[in-house]
Design goal:
By secondary structure, this protein is mostly helical. It has helices at 27-39, 50-70, 73-90, 96-105, 111-125, 137-142, 144-157. α1 packs across α2 and α5 (111-125) packs across α7 (144-157).
């Protein structure tokens, strides 16, 4: 595996190769890693039947995390591309539980975290989806950086549209009563 890792170059007598325990890794992700090491490729999700696409995408997500751990960027790129393609072709995206797993197992600068931030932002903003921001509460509690990434993805996706100025609004919108209810305001 060292030949595939970016950290495999060690000058003779000046360093040691890093040993990594893989006992707790996902078996499907590990199987994909072994396949890639021996065959130089993994199965393309595009050639799979619809009922297998999401499982393969999920395995690729776990493969990405494994490759991050053992530093194989080339396979990380393949894994993230297969994940995206699998999600698209299956018509599914990861839910908050799967996203949380990615958030806690990747660094804030991770391309995979950027991807799931964009997925969460899209789900939140989709008018046909009833996803509430609170759906991602555990992800936000685990990582304030993820919350910031989601807000930035929403801003980018919305084209940085300026909202109406809430200080210019009149009426009872911010009063201490039920929304839509009118009240008698005291004269100022």
């Amino acid at each position: 595996m060292a030949a595939h890792s970016d950290n495999h170059c060690v000058e003779k007598g000046k360093g040691k190769l890093k040993t990594v325990e893989l006992l707790d890794e996902d078996p499907k992700a590990f199987a994909l890693l072994v396949k890639w090491l021996y065959q130089g490729k993994i199965d393309d999700v595009g050639s799979m039947p619809l009922e297998r696409k999401w499982d393969h995408a999920d395995a690729c997500q776990k493969l990405y995390v494994l490759c991050d751990k053992i530093d194989i960027p080339q396979l990380k790129n393949i894994a993230i591309d297969q994940f995206r393609k699998g999600c698209n072709e299956a018509g599914l995206v990861p839910g908050p539980e799967e996203i949380r797993e990615i958030v806690i197992s990747t660094p804030p600068s991770s391309p995979f975290r950027r991807l799931v931030s964009s997925i969460a932002a899209r789900q939140i903003m989709d008018p046909q989806n009833q996803t509430n921001v609170a759906t991602y509460r555990t992800c936000f509690e685990d990582s304030a950086d993820f919350a910031i990434d989601v807000v930035n993805a929403i801003r980018k996706g919305a084209g940085a549209k300026l909202f109406p100025d809430p200080t210019e609004e009149t009426g009872c919108l911010y009063h201490e009563h039920e929304p839509g209810q009118l009240c008698a305001r005291p004269a100022m």
